[in-house]
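hiii so my PI (J.) wants the whole complex modelled not just the main chain, which honestly fair. so below is everything: two entries, each one labled with what it is. i double checked the lines twice but i was tired so who knows lol
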Amino acid sequence: MRKENIPKPEFNKINDYTWDIPKTYKEGMRVPARIFASEKLLEEMDLYVFDQISNVASLPGIVNRAMCMPDGHSGYGFPIGGVAAFDTQEGVISPGGIGFDINCGMRLITTNLSPKDVEEKIHEIISALFEKVPCGVGRKGFVQISKEKFSQVMQNGARWCVENGYGWDEDLERTEDFGCLEFADPSKVSEKAIARGFNQIGTLGSGNHYLEIQKADSIFDENAAKKMGIEEKNQICVMIHCGSRGFGHQIGTDYLKKFHKVMPQYGIKVSDPELACAPFNSDEGQDYHKAMACAANMAFANRQVIMHRVREVFSEIFKTSAEDLGMHLVYDVAHNTAKAEKHKVEGKTRELVVHRKGATRCFGPGREELAPIYRDLGQPVIIGGSMETQSYLLLGTEKALDETWGSTAHGAGRTMSRTQAKKKIQGKELQQEMHKKGIHVKAASYSGLAEEAGFAYKNVSEVIEVMHKLGISKKVVAFKPIGNIKG
Amino acid sequence: MTFKFLEEFATADIAFIAEGKTLKELFQSAGDALIESLANPKTVKKELTREFTVKENTPEDLLFSFLEEIIYLKDKDGMVFNSLEVEVDEKNLQARAKLKGAHIDPETQELRNDVKAVTMHYYKIEKEDEGWKTRVVLDV
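here's the output for the full assembly
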């Protein structure tokens, strides 16, 4: 069975929300590990999080410390919520620090509609979205292209979509990395990955992926909210959560197997097979990074075309153009990636490959990676809660660059297993309960719905509060769900 | 030929143990557990047949690749499965599988999880006195 003898670390308390696991916790740790959490969230974290993050702290070339965000829970290799930066010359890249769902991410879209406009049509909207955006097991997407054209998607991401009529020009500057990782190289991707994913553009998938209609519930920073397009309380918005589908999953699997074969030749030993890695500047490391970029671009494209579909559905139902409905993209963030970024280490600027697995980039104002519309404000950060609770729009800060390589949490984080959740409630019953709370949900699978019940997750507001109080990401708006399509 | 889903093993995902007196039985049990994770097999018709062969150097790698291939077919052909027949050549470490199933149809099938990948998370395969045993965690 799983390791049963994981010792609870003796944490060094740095402040009320920051806890360090010293290098002495486990043999082989090169740097300490740091957990960002309230005392309560720390107490609730399973011991595997500490085991896994200290394994990350043992990887070659890790800089400063391994970190876990307050929504952390055990994953494979890295815990979910794990952040670690490696020297690009001496460090490694690990698919276990990114996840199988490469560039799983969030997208937030505004409307100028009020709850009154939407509530009377909510069944119609949810049914239309459910029909038009395929979700659930192995579905084919609504964008059907040849394998040759898919190569252009791998290279150009959301840019391909806008050039082919699936979006507006302004969408790209409102997407992390302008919706395209330029270093993508399709020659590093297997035929198997392409066959698995080329017909899945425009699908949500299953698990915790969703498309949600929300209303702005609390506005914490009116000025920042307005700059991001949230004008007033109760404004209706749409949130999308999905990733690179089977395409990204296969790339993760391919390189996990490949890295296992090459680790001995680089003299790398890892304590968890899911931490298989290769030097970042090796041929294999570079190949994975370029293939990972192809999957990231597919995910940007996937969320872009789904947003386009959402605009079409709203336009049809409200008999007005999406432009007139104010359906602007606020931002699109990735929360499963590894990217080479410049950061200050002990006063010197260094290039590091920053792994974020279930963690969101949250750059503060001034970073050149941000488009001019957000460069003075900081990067918008979108955090999805469970389907029964709030979701958040946050803002990255300069402090995040000093503390977390410009990273914050990504969601609520699970506390209960899928099987346990299903035992507590049936999907149909949950659907009815949510309906009573004013949340209209349609799911591809009732068992899948039950697995995603709100009680299976941490309180997202507690997670957000930790990062807000630390000054790493600032609260701007909290949203409440009113309708949900669940994959 | 048996398998059992583990309730608390993987917080966000699916874990199971599978057993068999022989490698063939082990592969059958593990394959059945994977098929059950995708959709209720009783709701899937036997309309299409898919066959594949995998060959590796260790029983561990062979089972991993065998399960990975089923996930690949699910996405590549947009299929879920009713049943699986498997033959394992233990000497040459080669597995040959025949799957029966149908294209995904949310109207008639009880669909479950869109499994992303087989993981190496606490993955193991062991030969015991009574036969073979494995533990697998699927990313969903």
